Amino acid sequence: MPRHTAAAIGLAALLCFSFGARAEFQTVAREAILIDLSTDTVLFEKDADLPMPPASMSKIMTAFMVFEKLREGSLSLDDTFAVSEKAWRKGGSKMFVEVGKQVRIEDLLRGVIVQSGNDASIVLAEGLAGSEEAFAEAMNEKALEIGLTNSSFANATGWPDERQRMSARDLATVARLIIERFPEYYGYYSEKEFTWNGIRQGNRNPLLYRNTGADGLKTGHTEEAGYGLTASAVRNGRRLVMVATGLSSMRERGRESERIINWGFREFQNYTLFKAGESVETADVWLGDALNVPLTSPQDIVVTLPRRARRDMAVTVIYQQPVPAPIQEGDRIGTLRVTAPDVALREYPLYAGHSVEQLGPFGRIISALMYFVTGAP
After folding, report:
1. What are φ and ψ of residue 132, in 5° steps?
2. Would residue 248 show up in a list of annotated catalytic residues for this protein?
3. Catalytic hit among 18, 56, 58, 121
4. What's this model's pTM, rounded to 2 decimal places?
5. Confidence of residue 368 (pLDDT cuts 50, 70, 90)
6. pLDDT of residue 17
7. pLDDT of residue 312
8. Angle between helices 59-72 and 168-181 (to 10 degrees)
9. Taking Cα atoms as reference points, which of 114, 138, 115, 106 lies closest to residue 125?
10. Which residue from 20, 75, 182, 274 could staple onto 310, CB 3.0 to 4.6 Å apart?
């Protein structure tokens, strides 16, 4: 009869890399998270689910809302929105738009992303939703839709409000979605300066001016929030997303963010265990016109491992043995499980590499008799 099997995979060439215990790492950031985007692996976190005042980092969500409208075609970069007196009068960081003027969406986006303009954020919010309050409600609805679990919005700017909260993990989630869904607009985040109304302002992201591979995203600062940064960097095709909050100064924000990013690239590496379509395991088939079926993954199976680690990674395939026919190509057959001490369990679905038809009545009888005599399907 079919039985469940946990088959250890022989990976002699790969077992020199292991998860092992993570090096102890500390940060002075109040909340922080560091994620390897390609494998969705959290390399480090500190109070990452705590709702906190995000300050201008919440403008990442404001931009996300605009990017969605651009993607769906209900808005274009050349459309214009009028500047209200409310937007013009708003304090804090400014793009310096003029009341009553029409401003292109692309310029407003640069005003938000590069200059952190509160005025530009309000112009976008009012243009899309009629009022900043209605826009905040739309942000809250979108937050639920995209899986933000510790966020709430009261405005488009990040202006201090007890209802304006985001967790470090939620900020990282929005950053990831922007990078993955809107590559055509993500380039705005790497622009180092933008000039509007004759006033040139530099991007406040300190990592853009350092040799870190950074290409985004957004700083934030209020008295309550401290200095924060949501950032992403790429080296050798590998992308990390980092959030650090509650820092004491601009200088500490730059220094600590760079230290966290460098640590992630230095201490961890990505390793491909199996290529897409490669046979991970060959499973015996019960009452089929083929004796076995390969178990494969439609995507590369890649894990993020500490560079310095003991050889203690365990890679196991779990599936029903033997697999009963009929089997259709693409049927989920099993699971590849990767475990190691102090590392979160990772599981990857495995699918049938080809179809196997069921034997006819006579063939099933003969095969069943052979199984009871020899123990082989």
Report:
1. -65, -35
2. no
3. 56
4. 0.87
5. low
6. 30
7. 76
8. 30
9. 138
10. 20
**Confidence label for 345 from pLDDT (cuts 50, 70 and 90):** confident
352: tokens are 């049938």
Domain extent listing, the chain:
3-17+272-374, 31-247
How far is the C-alpha of 96 from the C-alpha of 42, rounded, in Å? 39
56 labelled catalytic: yes
Question: What distance in Å separates the CA atoms of residue 311 and residue 288, rounded to the nearest whole number?
Answer: 39
Look at residue 248 and give its three-state secondary structure: coil
d(CA 377, CA 364): 10
Q: Which CATH class is domain 31-247?
A: alpha beta
Q: What does the alpha-carbon distance between residue 213 and residue 219 come to, in Å, rounded to a whole number? A: 17
Measured CA to CA, the distance from residue 250 to residue 248 in angstroms comes to 7
Residue type, 157: T
The one catalytic residue among 84, 93, 116, 367:
116
Rounded to a whole number, what is the distance in angstroms from the first to the last CA of the chain? 9
Q: Which CATH architecture has domain 3-17+272-374?
A: Sandwich (2.60)
Phi then psi for 303, rounded to 5 degrees? -120, 150
Please say whether the beta carbons of 156 and 139 come within 8 A: yes
Q: Counting runs of H as helices and runs of E as strands, what totals does the chain give? A: 9, 18
Residue 2: band (very low, low, confident or very high) from pLDDT cuts 50, 70, 90: very low
Q: Please name the helix (run of DSSP H) or strand (run of DSSP E) that holds residue 80, with its range, or none.
A: strand 80-82
What lies within 8 Å, CB to CB, of 37 at 6+ separation is 176, 179, 232, 239, 240, 241
Catalytic residue among 59, 90, 94, 218: 59
- Is residue 59 part of the annotated active site? The answer reads yes
Structural contact between residues 23 and 306, judged by C-beta atoms closer than 8 angstroms: yes
CA atoms within 13 A on the CB side of 153: 30
The tokens of 308 are what?
A: 């310095």
